[in-house]
Design a protein that fits this description.
761 residues; alpha+beta; 6-stranded mixed β-sheet; 36 strands
Length: 761
């Protein structure tokens, strides 16, 4: 053991120095002064005259020599904390997840190879630890398992759960005298919990060895894909891809989407700055009525460190669905009513039940499912109105609705999560009613409007009754509601080709939080263009206003084969109704799963008034990728009203189809479906740089230390000499250390050379 070792030096700094010959502090001071006095006396007279400076140097060298001899005569020693050999344990955890297979640069070993070399090769940490400790070695990814040797490391773990593995090993060794834990990992933890915050025992020091580069030099990385899980008929499907890169700033690459090996979308992109993420959008138009699986990829560029993160798999549920039920109440026969009905006539995803006032106390019902539907006019009870997903009003009179029905309509949007749309103007008698509260624009009494805005579209020669070209706002230009073509330039071209609208029902400004999608090109109110189409969220639902009754011109004045009018109305009504709450819904805890993951499944059950229902008997049916069917009971969550849960371990790649059926007093049982896709693991390659911050926090929190591959040689001694509950104080003599002999010889030689240089005998 050498004195220069930091453990002895630290012990001296900490005041753990003692002497075999005890003469006390006063005796040491007096003895030191005597030795210095002897050195001074020996140079009081010299055989040749020397300068005072040289005399002081010679006295200093002789004093140091005498003091060092005196120090050794006192037999100094240090108290050092060290473990009792073979009586304490050390656990070694080795990361065996997929990210350890990464070779950070072409000319260096992989992270796994570096780890194996540290533990079993050149550094032989396992062997060196075994000289002092009982060693228990584990490999881990999502859980920890005993490790027999380096050949058992596979780098196949699809998840790194560092905290889970540490806690598991601490629990297994809780009855053993555990002196410390060595964790060899890149720290790329992708569990949901913070490993440091979740430590069950922070008293066991963790010695963390970080393997791998903190930043990947060259890499394209698909971070996330955002896409709806289901699609309504003939809708454009938008896929948003979040992509980051390093080493290829400003270069071009190709994003592509394939299905069953066939290219369905492709886009050339320019890569963002190093380390920054950029979002790109691709559009699809799926036709097959089934669950469709897509693979999105960014082309591999030569020199990439990791290519596994260039791909992502997702799905869309394009199966036939129950039509969305929409109630349309119209106050008088007009072209808008006729053309709206015509626009969705052949759309199987929508059912439009209409209630049209044709004259005084004369009404026409169309699109109804039964003779009883709307037989008493607009619904008066929640269970009747809540059967619809959306409600449209057009030019209605106050006599059609009472205050209770208006309040019910407000509950329909806010509580049931339905959609509401006003087509045309709003009778002034509704301005102070709940109906006006629903709208995304402020309603203003005509008398308070500037004169040039009064009169409304009833007067054709008035500015508000003139023809105008609909002007898309920025929000409208990129809104899926108003999309006529997947390509931006073609979409703008088609909008420019639409016939002019005629007439505008003047409203106030858009409410905070509302989006104006179409505005009037020339008319303004309070320095804002008059909104033609505006939308907003209201409570749990949505609302929209179309401040004109002339959208029928987009069909009547276009070639008969042009379907722009149909497309726009179908998209608006789907947007209005598609996110309305259902009485039973299935939700999953994540969007993507890998083989071996546990899926947490939750079902929300509501009664006919859309209140939480805790009295359901729910069974979950699971159809796996091989067509095998399993039924599992769902358990009511005591702390969550109307919520039922179940978990499922997915052990096969492919699409699982989950469904729940709830017996109902109505004609049809309630049903909900939720497909999920299980893919090869890729999470290990998403944020794959070595996380030194996490590793340092683990070490600091537990009283251990962090090491890089370059300084790991100190690790074994650090554990052996670190104070812990199982170490003891040992006195080590240091007076006979070789360092003191070398120092003594050096001092004597220096003095001899100095004397010879000055000609002294």
């Amino acid at each position: 053991m050498s004195l220069i070792q930091k453990h002895y030096l630290q012990a001296i700094i900490d005041g753990n120095l003692s002497f075999g010959v005890s003469i006390g502090v006063v005796g040491m001071i007096v003895g030191g002064l005597v030795l210095v006095g002897v050195a001074i006396a020996s140079y009081r007279k010299t055989t040749r005259p020397v300068s005072s400076g040289w005399k002081a140097t010679l006295i200093t060298l002789r004093s140091a020599t005498l003091l060092l001899l005196g120090f050794c005569v006192l037999e100094p020693g240090v108290l050092v904390s060290e473990v009792v050999p073979q009586e304490t344990y050390v656990a070694v955890l080795v990361d065996d997840s997929q990210s350890m297979s990464i070779r950070d640069r072409a000319n260096i070993p992989s992270r796994h190879e570096q780890s194996a070399e540290l533990l079993y090769g050149r550094e032989n940490i396992i062997g060196r630890l075994g000289e002092t400790f009982q060693v228990r070695t584990y490999r881990f990814s999502d859980i920890a398992q005993r490790l027999a040797g380096p050949e058992a490391l596979t780098q196949e773990g699809g998840r790194s759960a560092l905290g889970v593995a540490i806690n598991q090993v601490m629990s297994e060794l809780s009855s053993f005298p555990l002196a410390g834990m060595v964790v060899v990992s890149d720290g790329a933890d992708n569990s949901e919990a913070d490993p440091v915050q979740g430590l069950v025992d922070a008293s066991v020091p963790i010695y963390a060895v970080g393997v791998g580069a903190e930043e990947i030099e060259k890499d394209l990385n698909i971070l996330d894909v955002s896409a709806a899980k289901s699609l309504l008929e003939d809708s454009i499907y938008r896929v948003q891809v979040s992509l980051s890169q390093r080493g290829y700033q400003g270069q071009r690459a190709t994003l592509s989407i394939t299905s069953e090996g066939q290219m369905v979308a492709e886009q050339s992109i320019r890569l963002a700055d190093d380390g920054n993420a950029r979002r790109y959008t691709l559009e699809l138009s799926p036709k097959q009525k089934e669950i469709l699986v897509y693979n999105i990829s960014v082309e591999e560029i030569p020199g990439e460190t990791i290519t596994q993160n260039n791909h992502h798999t997702f799905f869309v549920d394009n199966r036939e669905k129950r039509p969305l039920d929409i109630l349309y109440v119209e106050g008088q026969p007009r072209n808008e009513y006729k053309f709206i009905r015509r626009a969705i006539k052949d759309d199987r995803s929508l059912r439009l039940a209409t209630y049209l006032q044709t004259g005084p106390r004369k009404f026409l019902r169309q699109g109804i499912k039964s003779p009883q539907e709307l037989s008493d006019g607009f619904p008066r009870e929640a269970d009747e109105l809540f059967e619809y997903e959306a409600v449209i009003f057009g030019n209605i009179d106050k006599t059609l609705l009472n205050d209770e029905q208006l309040t019910l309509l407000q509950d329909f949007v806010a509580k049931r999560g339905g959609g509401f749309m006003l087509v045309g103007g709003l009778n002034e008698s509704f301005i102070d009613s709940p109906l006006a509260d629903l709208l995304p624009v402020e309603m203003v009494y005509e008398s308070r409007l500037p004169s040039y805005l009064q009169g409304g579209p009833r007067h054709g020669h008035h500015p508000t009754g003139a023809e105008y070209a609909a002007r898309l706002t920025k929000d409208g230009e990129y809104s899926p509601i108003l999309r006529l073509d997947s390509q931006d330039n073609k979409n703008r071209e088609k909008w420019r080709g639409l016939p002019d609208l005629q007439g505008v029902y003047v409203t106030g400004r858009a409410k905070p939080g509302a989006s104006v999608l179409i505005e009037h090109p020339t008319l303004n109110y309070q320095n804002n263009a008059l909104p033609i189409l505006a939308a907003q969220r209201y409570g749990g639902g949505r609302s929209m206003v179309l401040a004109t009754a002339s959208s029928w011109r987009w069909q009547m004045m276009m070639p008969h084969e042009d379907e722009s009018h149909q497309r726009l109305w179908r998209q608006m009504l789907r947007w209005l109704a598609s996110e309305s709450r259902q009485r039973v819904t299935l939700t999953l805890d994540r969007d993507n799963y890998n083989v071996g993951d546990t899926v947490q499944i939750s079902a929300q059950l509501l009664d006919q008034e859309f209140e939480a229902d805790n009295n359901g008997l729910l069974w979950l049916q699971v159809n796996d990728p091989d067509g095998e069917v399993e039924e599992l009971p769902m358990n009511w969550e005591l702390e969550k009203e109307g919520t039922y849960t179940q978990s499922l371990i997915v052990d096969k790649e492919g699409v699982y189809d989950l469904s729940v059926n709830v017996p109902s007093q109505a004609d049809d049982d309630l049903q909900a479906q939720a497909p999920l896709i299980v893919t090869p693991a890729r999470r290990e390659f998403l944020q794959a740089g070595m996380d030194s911050g996490l590793m340092r926090r683990l070490a600091a929190t537990t009283g251990g230390r962090f090491y890089t591959v370059g300084d790991v040689g100190q690790l074994v001694d650090d554990i052996a000499f670190s104070p812990n509950a199982y170490s003891k104080q040992e006195l080590h003599s240091i007076w006979d250390e070789p360092l003191f002999l070398y120092l003594l010889i050096a001092l004597v030689c220096l003095e001899w050379f100095a004397r010879r240089y000055k000609g002294l005998s």
